[in-house]
């Protein structure tokens, strides 16, 4: 229960969206670490989106009574994360955080990632490996190169430099929750969403975070499937880039 | 001008008839809906015209500056197939989007139902 405090702190409700596909080995650890995080004045809930896992993820989630949504079939990362945004919209959360279920992200940075939204009026905050020196793990050379190319493409079209365009650790304010609940790219959503937001002149900030290597199993972007990935994301960025900004209905 | 042998004409007509029957059976057995059969009926009609009026096709080919009728038919057939497969991609994309939305809604409903059951059990205890 929320205690009425004399101070003018308005309690913020935050939802951590955790997409999980075949994460039976990592998910328990991730949730326990997350549950140990407490931030004063902030109420943190989480929702796990079990994206049609084929292993025992669903059983693990049920046995531990974790709050989760089981998708009847696999939608891919975009569809899974969007489910989280829909949930956040339905239950009227102030901020939604995307957080990987595989142990890559460190919950102690949640405070850093939401502070710009609460205190500086930012719309969207990206936890970045390439800003500051927090993260020793900066991915492989090939991935870094791909990331840099996409980053340059986004700068070309929007004039804004976002260094870690593929980061899946990000926070969105209420308005962006609504935007993403209604429309979210389905395949390789990270760079594309940045493009969508920058084209609509949203305030996007990068904050340094530490990321770990995956604890168990392999990432969903196996070996980066480099060329095909780059091609598809580039097409998406290009189309958004030359397109006119769609009117924001909620503005 | 019309120098198409009768055998070829008959063979083409037979092909069109088989094609039409196939479409009819597919609709009848609900393998395809009427909505998506239109384009195939149009294709059958085009084949029928091509089979019956070979002579006029030659006139059209000459007018377009295409040397032989067969070249024109290949070009036309290619264009039609191109359009059909593109429209199929459009249809698949929209279906995919709908499946995603439905899956998300089902997942969210299920979560809500389970939550309600869980709370009810708690209250009963």
Itemize the secondary structure elements and their pairings.
The complex is a heterodimer of chains A (251) and B (125).
Chain A lengths: L11 E9 L6 H9 L6 E9 L6 H7 L4 E3 L6 H14 L4 E4 L11 H11 L3 E5 L12 H18 L11 E3 L1 H9 L6 H11 L4 E5 L17 H17 L9
Parallel strand pairs in A: 1-2, 1-4, 2-3, 5-7
Antiparallel strand pairs in A: 4-6, 5-6
Chain B lengths: L5 H23 L5 H19 L1 H11 L4 H56 L1
Helix pairs in contact in B: 1-2
Please explain how this structure is put together:
The complex is a heterodimer of chains A (251) and B (125). Chain A has helices at residues 27-35, 57-63, 77-90, 110-120, 141-158, 174-182, 189-199, 226-242, and strands at residues 12-20, 42-50, 68-70, 95-98, 124-128, 170-172, 204-208. Mean pLDDT of chain A is 87; it is low at 1-8. In chain A, helix 2 links the parallel strand 2 and strand 3. In chain A, helix 5 (141-158) runs parallel beside helix 8 (226-242). Chain A contains eight helices and seven strands; from the N terminus they run βαβαβαβαβαβααβα. Chain A has a seven-stranded mixed sheet with strand order 3-2-1-4-6-5-7, with helices on both faces. With 251 residues, chain A is an alpha/beta fold. Chain B has 125 residues and is mostly helical. Chain B is built from four helices and no strands. Chain B has helices at residues 6-28, 34-52, 54-64, 69-124. In chain B, helix 1 (6-28) packs antiparallel against helix 2. The longest helix of chain B is centred in the C-terminal third of the chain and has 56 residues, at 69-124. The A-B interface holds A 49, 67-73, 75, 79, 82-83, 86-87, 90, 186 and B 96-97, 99-100, 103-104, 106-108, 110-111.
